[in-house]
Amino acid sequence: MECFVFYCKTLHLSIFESAIINSMTIPDEVEIRPLRFHEIPKLLKFRSRNDYYASGDMATVDSLLHFFLKAIWHRHRMRTFVATREGALVGYLSLVLGRQRKQRENIYIVSTAVSAENRGQGIGTLLFKELENYAKLRAVKRIELEVFSRNTGAIKLYKRLGYEIEGVKRHAVESEDSYDDLVIMAKLLN
Question: Does 175 lie in the same domain as 85?
Answer without folding.
Answer: no
